[in-house]
Every structure is written in structure tokens, then in C-alpha cells.
Design goal:
This protein has about 290 residues and is of the alpha+beta class. The protein is built from 7 helices and 10 strands. It folds into 3 domains: about 55 residues, no CATH class; about 160 residues, no CATH class; about 45 residues, no CATH class. A two-stranded parallel ribbon has the order 1-9. A two-stranded antiparallel sheet has the order 2-10. It has a two-stranded antiparallel ribbon with strand order 3-8. It is elongated and about 80 Å long.
Length: about 290
């Protein structure tokens, strides 16, 4: 029996253990075997479809040398547990703390809103299934979660001068009031209108990395669930818990110094087991849901 951390076991399952078995539609032999001689555009189309799509029953690219083999039983158990993650309740707290190592200036509210919109869809549900998050990380690995220190800039005109904006009241065709945003610079007086404002932004934009951090933290939380469900059930693998920190980007060298002046409450992402369900009943880490 070999020892593996849960993240390595999941990566092994989706990169090796589940690649055996035929593809949908009969596999390579049905497409290119005896009695099926094709060429030209038809052959090119078949090859592109066969090799570009992860189309075996587990959703991974099949190994053409293992078309008649059975998938590893431990890998199948891991796959079933990963699919079971979709039954869990995923929560992103309002004060999520993935911004601690970067200064966002007065752009923080806009960045926080953009990150939440990139992770949570309407209705409060995550935009991606947890099984999809796990499989993507297993096959492709985690993206670069480090942040370059952004600079605060303001929108400028073509000549490099700052742009100014203002809001004025207007009335639509039905007589209903609304606000419209106009140019806030008075060209005749050569100065901004009273109450005009500028629009700041961060360069480089940290939103994409922060969205990836959200998914990485959920991925890390899901690893603990997988370890609890699978530990002691595998035949060939002694499953070890993950040694990664709760926030995986903290395991990589930081590009900027952390903010030591303004402490922020650390609120991690949460994955909660439902009250009912034989597979997920009785969470040790969530006794209130047991």
C-alpha cells in the first residue's frame, strides 16, 4: 500500500487511474479499425473529436493503450466522492479575506464586488460545481495565485489628462427621474464642474487572481471533505490529509509585503454538509450539521 496526500491521489485518479476503458461511441477501433477506412477531412474530423474532447465515462481523456482495461477501483471511489461534493452547501462570506497581502486603496469596494460576481451567481449559488473545481485542479493544477502590487491610477483622456465625470438628473419619456453620467470637465472654464469626480482603477487589475484564490480556497476545503470520506476505504492507497494551508497561495513566496497595519478578520470559505444524505451525514468539522 502506498501513501498519498489527498490532492496527489485525486490528481493520480484523473490523470492515470480513470483513463482506462472505451470512449463514447466505441472508441478508436470503431472509428479506425477493420472495415472502417476513412481519409481526408473525415479522418481529420474524427481525430480532432477523439483527441480534443475528454469523452470517457469519467469525463477525462482516455488512454488509447487501455481501451480494454478496467479503471482502477480506488480511482473510481475517488471519482464518486468527488461527484458527491456537488451535494455540499458552499458559502462565500461577505468579508472574505483573500485581499490581505495587497493594497486596494479606495478601489476595494469595487474589487470586492467584482470578485464576488466572478464566484457567486444570482441566487447565491457558486458559478462552478465543486466536482468541476476539483477535476480542473487535478488535471491542470492550480493557477498562479500570487499578486503583483497594483498601482492606483485614474482614467485619462487621449492626451494623458485625467477624465472627469458628473451625474445629472434627467426624466425619461414616462416622466420617471433617473441619473445620467456626463463629461465632468467644463472646457469653457477649463476646470471640472462642481461635484465632478474621477474614476480610479488598479494596474494590474487584481480581480482575476482574487477570483482564482476563491476557487483555490474552496478546492482546499473540499480536500478535507474528500479525505474524511475516503480515508480507510481505498485498497491500494493510504490516504493522507493535505499539508497545504487553508489559503493555498500562502504556501508560495509572496511578491509584496503583507499589510501589518490594518488587521482584517479572517473569514474562510465554508463547505457545509447537508443535514440529510447517507454519504455526507455526520461531519466532525461541522457538528452543528451532524
Amino acid at each position: 500500500m502506498r501513501s498519498m496526500t489527498v490532492e496527489k491521489a485525486v490528481a493520480w485518479a484523473y490523470c492515470e487511474g480513470l483513463t482506462a476503458g472505451p470512449v463514447h461511441g466505441g472508441g478508436i477501433l470503431q472509428s479506425f479499425g477493420p472495415g472502417r477506412i476513412v481519409g481526408g477531412h473525415e479522418a481529420a474530423s474524427m481525430v480532432a473529436r477523439l483527441w480534443a474532447l475528454p469523452d470517457n465515462v469519467f469525463g477525462v481523456l482516455p488512454d488509447p493503450t487501455k481501451l480494454y482495461d478496467e479503471p482502477n477501483p480506488d480511482a473510481v471511489k475517488i471519482h464518486e466522492a468527488v461527484q458527491g461534493l456537488d451535494k455540499l452547501d458552499v458559502t462565500m462570506p461577505e468579508a472574505w479575506c483573500g485581499f490581505e497581502d495587497v493594497e486596494l486603496y479606495d478601489c476595494r469596494p469595487a474589487v470586492e464586488a467584482a470578485v464576488r460576481a466572478g464566484v457567486v451567481a444570482m441566487g447565491g449559488k457558486p458559478r462552478r460545481r465543486m466536482s468541476q473545481v476539483i477535476c480542473t485542479a487535478a488535471i491542470l493544477g492550480l493557477p498562479d495565485l500570487r499578486l503583483d502590487a497594483p498601482e492606483r491610477r485614474v482614467q485619462t483622456r487621449a492626451n494623458g489628462q485625467p477624465r472627469w465625470f458628473r451625474r445629472v438628473a434627467a426624466v425619461d419619456a414616462c416622466g420617471l427621474p433617473y441619473d445620467v453620467e456626463l463629461d465632468g470637465y467644463d472646457a469653457r472654464a477649463k476646470r471640472p464642474f462642481e461635484g465632478a469626480y474621477q474614476k480610479p482603477y488598479l494596474d494590474p487589475d487584481p480581480v482575476g487572481v482574487l477570483v482564482d484564490r476563491c476557487w483555490a480556497e474552496l478546492w482546499r476545503a473540499a480536500l478535507d471533505e474528500l479525505h474524511e470520506v475516503l480515508a480507510g476505504t481505498l485498497d491500494e492507497i493510504d490516504l493522507l490529509p493535505s499539508a497545504l494551508p487553508i489559503r493555498p497561495w500562502e504556501a508560495t513566496p509572496a511578491r509584496v509585503l503583507p499589510d501589518l497595519v490594518t488587521p482584517r478578520r479572517r473569514q474562510p470559505m465554508r463547505i457545509v454538509r447537508p443535514v440529510a444524505g447517507p454519504l455526507w451525514k455526520g461531519s466532525k468539522r461541522n457538528p452543528e450539521n451532524a
